[in-house]
Design goal:
The complex is a heterodimer of chains A (132) and B (185). Chain A has 132 residues and is α/β, with parallel strands linked by helices. Chain A has a single domain, classed as Transcription Regulator spoIIAA (2-Layer Sandwich). In chain A, strands 1-2-3-4-5-6 form a six-stranded mixed β-sheet, with helices on one face. In chain A, helix 2 links the parallel strand 4 and strand 5. In chain A, helix 1 packs parallel to helix 2. By secondary structure, chain B is of the alpha+beta class. Chain B contains six helices and seven strands. In chain B, strand 4 and strand 5 form a beta hairpin. Chain B is globular. The N and C termini of chain B lie far apart (38 Å). The relative contact order of chain B is 0.16. Classes of the chains: A alpha/beta (132), B alpha+beta (185). At the A-B interface, helix 2 and helix 3 of A face helix 2, helix 3, helix 5 and helix 6 of B.
Chain lengths: 132, 185
């Protein structure tokens, strides 16, 4: 299967899902009016990836902003990865947040409390966003 | 008319309005308004956490305005259907924070549900509000825009205060909904 690459925009994140390395990235901003349209290809890709995943998968989430319309879609991504983990593979979510952004840390903790995947909280200096 | 423009300008200055808009909204316009707020906040607000919270609240309020809209405008008592969602937004800089005001017509049949939701949110202390957010996030249901009822909870969490709201009944099908969110520094 091929990699999924999407350039970031002022309202949508940069996406780089690599099936060869098991390294998945979601970075920037996720604030579109309709998140379901944006996330559908990502969820479909993970569905496919889940059939023959790498033994180790790491999803890096490094968001500066995300809206509530994206929240449930992001949860759906994690649920797909929960499925990958359930079949005996190693899966980690690396949740990056800016040092001053306690709210983003809390958001990561909220997901970690719902999803059965180990989360690593990683403090960073500043997210490289796409200002509108 | 020329004087009224000056009066309007004066009034907006007195209320320390950073941005105000009334009219039809498109996704591009929402992006532009958010961009304007972000640039303004970069200049006005030294605390990055407050900057982010204000941006978040404005974003959710504008998207609520966009999604839960009766597409109606009323001029001199005459209602007219609009192509795009229609409403009003005003963001003011106060001594102790920021004020985000929005207003739009919505379906009268949704008023009671929204009122119950807002009252429930306003009754919860921060820790329970977070719990309510988690439960709503985890429950697996989607609304048509994907938010699944998280918007107002998130606005309340980011505001740290109570959501002030009002409904003005317009006709048998529609009501005007006003929301005032304060983000205190």
């Amino acid at each position: 299967m091929s990699a999924l690459f999407l350039e970031g925009s002022p309202k949508t994140p940069h996406v780089n899902f690599d099936p060869e390395t098991g390294l998945l990235e979601l970075k920037g901003r996720s604030i579109p009016e309709n998140s379901i349209d944006f996330y559908k290809p990502l969820i479909d890709w993970l569905d496919k990836y889940g059939r023959s995943p790498r033994p180790k998968t790491a999803l890096h989430v490094q968001l500066e902003y995300f809206n509530t319309s994206s929240s449930k879609c992001i949860l759906d991504l994690f649920k797909k990865l929960e499925g990958v983990r359930a079949t005996g593979n190693e899966v980690t979510v690396l949740w990056h947040y800016e040092a001053d952004d306690e709210d983003m840390l809390e958001a990561g903790e909220d997901y970690a409390g719902i999803i059965n995947i180990p989360f690593k909280m990683i403090q960073i200096e500043e997210v490289d966003g796409n200002k509108s | 008319m020329l004087e009224r423009i000056h009066d309007l300008y004066d009034e907006l200055e007195r209320q320390r309005v950073m941005l105000s808009f009334k009219g039809s909204l498109s996704p591009d316009l929402v992006t532009a308004l958010l961009g304007a707020v972000e640039r303004k906040m970069d200049v006005l607000e030294p605390d990055p956490r407050t900057r982010k919270r204000v941006f978040n609240v404005v974003m959710e309020c504008l998207q609520n305005l966009y999604h839960h809209n009766a597409n109606l405008r009323v001029t001199n008592g005459n209602a007219e259907t609009t192509m795009d969602p229609h409403g009003v937004v005003m963001i003011a800089h106060l001594d102790d924070g920021y004020q985000v005001l929005t207003g739009n017509f919505m379906a009268g049949s949704d008023v009671e549900t929204l009122k119950i939701h807002l009252d429930r949110i306003n009754a919860l202390p921060p820790e329970q509000l977070r719990e309510f957010y988690r439960e709503t996030l985890a429950d697996g249901t989607f609304t048509k825009n994907g938010g699944g009822g998280l918007g107002m909870i998130d606005i309340a969490r980011k505001s740290g205060g109570k959501l002030e709201y009002g409904f003005v009944p317009y006709d048998k099908d529609n009501a005007f909904f006003s929301l005032n969110v304060n983000v205190t520094t």
